[in-house]
Amino acid sequence: MLRFAVLDDRGPVADFPLRHAHLLGADEVAVPADINFADGLIHCVKKASDAAGLALLYDAGDCGELALRTCLLPQRQRPYLLSLELARHRIMLFLNKLEEWFLCDLPADEPAMTLFEQARAKFTAALAAERAVDHSFTPEEDRLAREALCLAIQASERLALLASDILMHHRLNTAQNAAGTGVVNLMIGCAVRRDQTSDGLQKVVADYFDFMVSPMRWPALEPDEGEYSFGKTDKWVEWAVRTAKMPVHAGPIIDLRPGRTPEWLHIWENDYDTLREVVFQHLKKVVTRYHKAVSRWTVASGLHLNADFKLTLEQIMDLSRLCVMLVRKMIPNAKIQIEIDQPFGEHYGCDPVSLPPLIYAEMLVQQGLAIDAIGLRIQMGDAREGRAVRDLMALSAMLDAYSVFDKPIVVTALGAPSEPIAPAPASPDDPNPDRFLPGRWRRPWSPEAQADWLHNAMAVCLSKPYVLSVAWQDLYDSTGPGALYEMPHGGLITSAGKPKPALRQLAKATRLAHFRQALAARPARAESAALSP
Questions:
Q1: What span, in angstroms and rounded, lies between the C-alpha atoms of 306 and 265?
Q2: How many domains is the chain built from?
Q3: Over the stretch 51-67, which tens digit does the pLDDT of each residue have?
Q4: By the 8 A CB rule, do 304 and 261 touch?
Q5: pTM value surpassing 0.85
Q6: Is residue 282 a part of any domain in this protein?
């Protein structure tokens, strides 16, 4: 058993909400465990005796309420001090990334290094703090550890942004050198829903983005079995291809995330052979219609979550292979990717019949699926599983973890809200109804906080040499049914049609503006694709 003491300024706390709490083992893989709080201690019970780390939502002061983790710790009778172990891991992460990013020669007066030295001094003071007579932790020790944690997070975020500046400068030079050849990746896009089309929205897409994402959600395209409704999707795709001369990314076509499949499909949830055939026919229908208009296909998403449809490991991989092979056969030169939702992988700690995302990505590559990229859906701030708020260093480290598979990364949906999101109503007998409260980054979510997060998160993503493109999750807010949009308050335009600061930030952000200027120098390519009947 692992136990963690939680203190405040008066001593052990009487109550501590466990939000997004899970254990992590080796290779960042979640470990199934029972986690509860009692008598001032977090108790973590797991089957294996291997070392593990605790990850959970934690109030880090001025840094926000963030999903943080400890190092891998051996089991012992004496409890660990939670704040101290969170600070220890963040200091270790800073040192690891300092070496990995070849930044060990940073001057001592660099702000990131200054903050780090302050964090290390506070951490050392916490270790040396005098214990109580019974050798229990003291409020003073906890206070020093919490201060060390906050300073370490600030230092690591500055380091992540410094690394992104250096890498972005390199990508900018590469883009400028390649502009004359036309070999430049189209970097910044946005998803548009089919339920609203207007000249104003189309102008925003044309002015601010390099490509358009058409989600092509199955419940909207085929609300009743065998009865398709393509009209609204056609309008956006035709505009992008014929008027805006803009590339279109489509998908996910087969989306098995919770709430993303039509109701009638659940008839076949216990009949895999029929489900496979229905998936085959739907994918074939959509690809046949749009194969001349779409330049990149996200063929599947959410398979590894194993949420609404309980599949075996063999069935998950078979369905993944089917989606890729069908599109590859129909369009040999197509750009194909499979999307991974909840890329931090906390879902596996609560649902061991699912598949850890890093293991799923590794299996896609090892089994030779002909994908051109791995898609990552990075959404934070929503009151749902897997969408807890993480800091910029955690975001950067997660992207690095997926780069080891030697496949380009496409951020298929980057997103955060412009207002705090309350969790869905829980059942009266739920012992922890707030378990999925998402937290905040630096301050409560607001239009300005969303804009700041977009500016920094997109800079981190775009700076990575293995990231091909980044798409924002939604163009505009909606008050419609939940299946039609990704996140409440998650768009760049309000439901009343007013641009948010996040949209203006896209145009004003210096790093992105310079990069887009380099992209604008590329020669225009004629796009004559059309829809197929």
A1: 15
A2: 2
A3: 999 999 999 999 999 99
A4: no
A5: yes
A6: yes
